[in-house]
Amino acid sequence: MAIRGSYAKGVARREEILESALDVIGRKGYQNASLKEIAEVVGVTPAALLHYFGSKEELFTAVLRKRDELDGLDPAFLDADGARDGFLQVIRHNTEVPGLVALFSRLSVDAADPAHPAHEYFLERSERLRATIAENFPSGPRHAPVDPETLARIIQAAADGLQLQWMIDPTVDMPGIMAALIDALQPES
Amino acid sequence: MAIRGSYAKGVARREEILESALDVIGRKGYQNASLKEIAEVVGVTPAALLHYFGSKEELFTAVLRKRDELDGLDPAFLDADGARDGFLQVIRHNTEVPGLVALFSRLSVDAADPAHPAHEYFLERSERLRATIAENFPSGPRHAPVDPETLARIIQAAADGLQLQWMIDPTVDMPGIMAALIDALQPES
DNA sequence: GTCTATACAGGGATAGAC
DNA sequence: GTCTATCCCTGTATAGAC
To answer: Angle A107-A110-A113 (CA atoms, 0-180°, nearest 5)?
Structure first.
């Protein structure tokens, strides 16, 4: 059943808003990305944004959800053999979308509040990510065993922490450092 | 030369404001810590806060600076032998000051903007921290060498990333996971 | 369903009186 | 050194036009 009429227009507007939001964040930083400015880029009023998304926080959460679908984190890990390179590829790709990294990092902090609309999102996404890592990354070296769940938390933490370092100093080599960590934890794989 | 008169009062007020700010953040979260509420705790108006610190961001940056002095990160690393345990002790201590962790994480993100008052602070503090780690932590295992600078970035990233995980889920065992990482990277130390 | 206009509460910041 | 008063901007709720 095809999408037609005003319904189709709404869907298009939604996408347009999500893209513009990410665009503004990338250019001006999360802090200065106001609903007013995003609305101006789209060519509507701030109220129009709130018509589609209930609040600013929900809008930004939706941006993150959308990118997860597009970039598709999970497919890269489906095969255990490509887990390492797939993971590094995602990190390398993040280098090219600073706005997305800024948004992700900022919401990671704000979502600590259980009342934040992204709270459940981060809980579920993180758990899913760690499960994938635990399944597809070989466990640690025999002489210093690290159980899969701990390994997953370490890798996730390092990736998130490196983004903080990279944001404040873009010369930081995120993929290189992550590769060094993974290889150090799995010398015989 | 003793501090007297109105000068002493100003210094006392400054300290009082810094403590109240951290207190409010701990109870209500960074997001809901307004100048108005902090001012109420101190017993003054928001304008008084801005008299001592130029802006809200500078006030919060000052809180972080003050805690660095009190908790004294560096002393714990002065001896190479106690580097590991000293580092873990700091992390364990952070568990008891959630407001400070929230403040640090939030400013870590905001300070990515070069115009943010905490930008230089984070650049210098991070570099100093990594230098200390690189000096006092033995380098990686022989079969998977990790140079000291990379090791320092990994440990710092993991510590910061773990704080994000812990904030959204306080059951996360930060010290335990950090210990596992350090031991895995330095099996023969 | 899509959107504008309007109004409001709250935030941080500024100027000037005391 | 501190407050009052004011200003502007933010996000948001509502009403109603199309």
So the answer is: 135
Tokens describing residue B129? 């921290």
Specify the nucleotide whose C1' lies closest to residue A58 (CA): D11
User: pLDDT per residue over A124-171, tens digit each?
Assistant: 999 999 999 999 998 766 656 799 999 999 999 999 999 999 999 999
Count of alpha carbons within 13 angstroms of residue A149, beta-carbon side? 4
Q: Residue A184 and residue B141: Cβ atoms within 8 Å?
A: yes
A19: left (phi over 0), alpha (psi -120 to 50) or beta: alpha
Delineate the domains of chain B, giving CATH numbers in brackets: 1-52 (1.10.10.60), 63-185 (1.10.357)
Q: Is B181 on the interface with A (CB under 8 A)?
A: yes
At A66 the pLDDT is 95
Structure tokens at B77: 């690393």
With beta carbons less than 8 A apart as the criterion, state whether B108 and A164 touch: yes
Degrees, nearest 5: CA angle B151-B153-B155: 70
* Chain B closest-CA separation from residue A169 CA (Å): 8
Chain A hits for B187, CB-CB cut-off 8 Å, are 141, 143-144
Contact B24, B17 (CB under 8 A): no
The 3-state DSSP class for residue A187 equals: coil
pLDDT digits over B94-117, tens only? Answer: 999 999 999 999 999 999 999 999
Average pLDDT of the residues in B165-176: 98
Measure the CA–CA gap between A16 and A166, rounded to whole angstroms: 28
Rounded distance, CA B135 to CA A10, Å?
A: 58
The SS3 of residue B188 is: coil
Cβ(B112)–Cβ(B178) below 8 Å = no
The model's confidence at residue A189, banded by pLDDT at 50, 70 and 90, is: very low
Q: Using the beta-carbon criterion (under 8 Å), do B162 and A185 form an inter-chain contact?
A: no
Mean pLDDT computed over A33-52 = 98
Secondary structure (3-state) at A153: helix
Closest to A25 measured CA to CA, from A55, A60, A57? A60
